[in-house]
Amino acid sequence: MPRILTGDSLISRLIVEPGRRVQLHDQHAGNTFGWEKHEAIQALEQNRQKLSDLQYKLYADGRHALLVVIQAIDAGGKDGTVRDIFTAMNPQGCVVSSFKAPSAEELKHDYLWRVHQRVPARGMVGVFNRSHYEDVLIVRVEKLVPKAVWQRRYAEINEFERMLTANNVRIIKLFLQISRGE
Questions:
Q1: SS3 breakdown of the chain: % helix, strand, coil, rounded to 5?
Q2: Which three-class secondary structure state does DSSP give residue 22?
């Protein structure tokens, strides 16, 4: 019987607890944690069915929403992850949003305005392909706003996520690491 990722020690090895710092250079992007490719493919298929079943229950219950935030560098596997995982779900209950450079309309509002509009309703699954974290990362790296602005955004994003959680939006954050060679 193939291993299932849920409940496996692999999950506990990949979770980053709140407040814990991670140094990506300490982690090897090619680490398979002992999984063979055929095992991973079998586990993916089993977990896709479980996701489909759980999505149905989430929708039927209607009290909670799920927001999955996927971050990675360009060509880091975000689109493939969305395709491989979330196509298991009913498209009527799953919305994928990609965040590119803000439009003229979006720039007329606070930086979280466009993100908040795409937060899933209760009973729904929302997937952010990139996210509100770009509004700290890009502006910091490209020096688009002063340091005081991007530093303040860390606290604002934390408050935004606390507010979502308090309103029954469960947030799962995925960071996909890819090796320099890949």
A1: 45, 15, 40
A2: coil
Is the pLDDT at 1 greater than 50, yes or no? no
The tokens describing 97, both together, are 């949003």
Model pTM score:
0.86
Sheet of strand 169-175, all strands in order from the earlier edge strand to the far edge: 94-98, 125-129, 65-71, 169-175
Over residues 19-63, the pLDDT tens digits come to 888 777 767 777 777 888 888 888 888 889 999 999 999 999 999
Q: What are 26's two structure tokens?
A: 């300490």
Token pair 């997937």 is at which residue? 127
Task: Say how far apart CA 106 and CA 115 lie, in whole Å.
Answer: 10
Six-digit token pair at 48?
Answer: 């896709």
Residue among 84, 177, 169 nearest 126 (CA) = 169
> 126 by DSSP, 3-state: which?
strand
